[in-house]
Amino acid sequence: MTSVRSLAQGSIAVGLVVLGLKYAAYHLTGSVALLSDAIESIVNVVTAIVALLAITLSAKPADDEHPYGHHKAEYFSAVLEGVLIVLAAILILREAYAGYLEPRKLDAPWLGLAMNGAATLINAGWAWLLIRQGRERRSPALTADGRHLLTDVISSIGVLGGVGVAALSGIAILDPILAALVALNILWAGWGLMKESLSGLMDEAIAPATLVSIKQIISSHADGAIEAHDLRTRRAGSMTFIDFHLVVAGSTTVSAAHDICDKLETAIRQEIGEALITIHVEPDDKAKHSGIVVL
């Protein structure tokens, strides 16, 4: 978790550097499109701060009021990030409309584009790192932050190309039109981010491929059991929750049944990582003759 916190803290520092470069590019050129890029970077800084707070909260151990832990805090962070992206898109559309009504010639466009390009390269490298680390550490907040930065990178590349064309052609109205396109792009990204995060808040089941792996582990590692049924899963941040019923012979001792459960829990965690596993042991007369057959 320390590494996750360090990455979240790094996002704040990187966001401030990128924001400074992009705002300087806008200040030099007066480009509405470059202003839209700078506004999105403001959102990046704010969401990085929110992500750090969410990661810190989610790392708190379970307590009497939250016996299952605080893992879902990261989903709230991702939802808030989506909301802020939408607000940023609205602000950009407002600036684009004003620029459309009064288009202006760009000042020092090439120096501004060079500064914006440097900021884009920094964002691209950091986005790649956040997405990779977020997936490896199963951190929705880091992954959401990285995906948003990747969207920023894509829109920034479009901005660089469009402003370059506007500077070469002298067609000033291309600048606000490009800003509007940037706004629509991040609006779509914000909606996708909120939709994915809400799925986590609604206790969506884990990925089908992971579920298949769990079933295979139960089938091959539950020596001494007969079957398993009513398997349920959900994920909250970095924690996976798994529960199922395990049927054993009626003559099985409590100690033997406990050993089977321990073996299963160890095998499952070795495959999928951190997990809270609940196994309800039942005698053979409760068998449903369905679900997972133990080999």
Features:
295 residues; alpha+beta; Alpha-lytic protease prodomain-like; Alpha-Beta Plaits; four-stranded mixed beta sheet; 69% helix; 11% strand; transmembrane
Radius of gyration: 25 Å
Which residues sit in consecutive blocks of at least 5 with pLDDT less than 50?
none
Intertermini distance:
37 Å
Report strand order across the widest sheet.
Answer: 3-2-1-4
Main sheet: strands, sense, barrel:
4 strands, mixed
In total, the number of domains comes to: 2
Count the DSSP helices.
8
What does this structure look like?
The protein has two domains: 200 residues, Cation efflux protein transmembrane domain (Alpha-lytic protease prodomain-like); 86 residues, Cation efflux protein, cytoplasmic domain (Alpha-Beta Plaits). Helices cover 69% and strands 11% of the residues. The chain has eight helices and four strands. Strands 3-2-1-4 form a four-stranded mixed beta sheet, with helices on one face. It starts with a helix and ends with a strand.
